């Protein structure tokens, strides 16, 4: 099974080419072709710097630049013939450059290695993804804020243990997710700031004897500065791990919200109606409208967390500096990034299109003795009862209502006074759900006035 032609890039030392299985396990071109643009950007910056520093001639640099742009247009135009024998994107591009411009192509790799090259390409790619994630998160937050603004006064049940707890407002619930996605965006922002250092010029691992200008290439590629240690520069994949861990937390938030949408859109809850655009039907049950997008979003955490764990596992125990293990970094990150962006876009679409069913929300908010805490608070406030006693009296009233098969506001004053003689008719004011939410004016509370204030704050921040 051996291939008789030796490698064009390092043929000097090799008498025979690789076995077909070796080629199959070694080649990354099948996936790292996604780094083509970043690879060419890196090479353009490197070649310009080499000429600036007098390491190659201006005419060679000009030929290299023109050739690289030709190669890029071939790749983007879909006419480029990728070769597995050439292993990866770096050697595919360089080999084609040689065909296009001839000898000057051989000078491009002066003072660099594929180790710093791939580290640079991948950083540029992940940096773009961090930007895309931040944009996707902003769009989702805007959709949530619009829902919150429309429904600042709509009441719904708030749950603990998925049991009715206290009434809350729809707007408040939407804004809870805005807070989560804002933290996700901030994590992406932090990760981006830390990853924005340039490995290019670290060469194979030790730096180079050529008088390269690392500040210049870093600047040309939009990095804040060159990485300070060449060994670290070629071995570090923290930038990808930070992207993945931020993505994992974001996917967890998406999954929680997706789960709520699945529950809320069921016939038993009817809290929301998802649009036809983000639902599917059943091939057998004509009545069905399934929340497939929400279910898929709920599941995306699986592969995104999987990628995070996979890359951490690849990196653990690797000695400095580069090892080929690190080629296993890309597919996982590509897949996680693709799926994060898709999940964010789908969630944004679903949120923008969904309709809250105000009547169902309000009916559910009023059931399940949701204002029992308001009743206990009233006893404390009005009758100066210790809270523990108020809790006990309220419990007895809830039991009474439960036995009578009604809700708290349906009890008569007589019935209430049977439990505690000092209760007055004023108590009925606090048993209504709208009064209940309006009273929760503490900072961060569910009162419509608080929700409106937060909506205003977010609208300003998201402009
Ligand atoms: N395809 C390789 C990777 O993704 C590029 C770096 C190869 N470097 C090396 N010394 N073999 O990691």
What does this structure look like?
- With 463 residues, the protein is mainly α.
- Helix content is 61%, strand content 5%.
- The protein contains 19 helices and 6 strands.
- The protein has helices at 20-26, 29-32, 36-52, 58-77, 89-101, 114-150, 170-195, 214-220, 230-235, 238-264, 292-315, 330-353, 358-366, 372-383, 387-404, 413-419, 427-431, 433-439, 448-461, and strands at 155-160, 163-169, 197-198, 225-226, 272-273, 355-356.
- The protein has a two-stranded antiparallel sheet. The protein has a two-stranded parallel ribbon with strand order 3-4.
- The mean pLDDT is 95.
Short description:
With 463 residues, the chain is mainly alpha-helical.
Ions and ligands: arginine
Could you spell the SSE succession in H and E letters?
A: HHHHHHEEHEHEHHEHHEHHHHHHH
Number of helices: 19
Helix content: 55-70%
| CA-CA gap between termini | 61 Å
Radius of gyration using CA atoms only: 31 Å
Major beta-sheet overview: 2 strands, antiparallel
Mean pLDDT: 95
Give the overall shape, derived from the CA principal axes: elongated
Biggest sheet, strands in spatial order?
1-2
Weakly predicted, low-confidence segments: none
How many individual β-strands? Answer: 6
Could you tell me the strand content as a percent range? under 5%
Structural class: mainly alpha
Helix-strand layout with pairing:
Blueprint (H helix, E strand, L loop, with lengths): L19 H7 L2 H4 L3 H17 L5 H20 L11 H13 L12 H37 L4 E6 L2 E7 H26 L1 E2 L15 H7 L4 E2 L3 H6 L2 H27 L7 E2 L18 H24 L14 H24 L1 E2 L1 H9 L5 H12 L3 H18 L8 H7 L7 H5 L1 H7 L8 H14 L2
Parallel strand pairs: 3-4
Antiparallel strand pairs: 1-2, 5-6
Helix pairs in contact: 3-4, 3-6, 3-8, 4-5, 6-7, 6-10, 6-12, 6-19, 7-10, 10-11, 10-12, 11-12, 14-15
This protein binds arginine.
The site of arginine (ARG) has 10 residues, from helix 6.
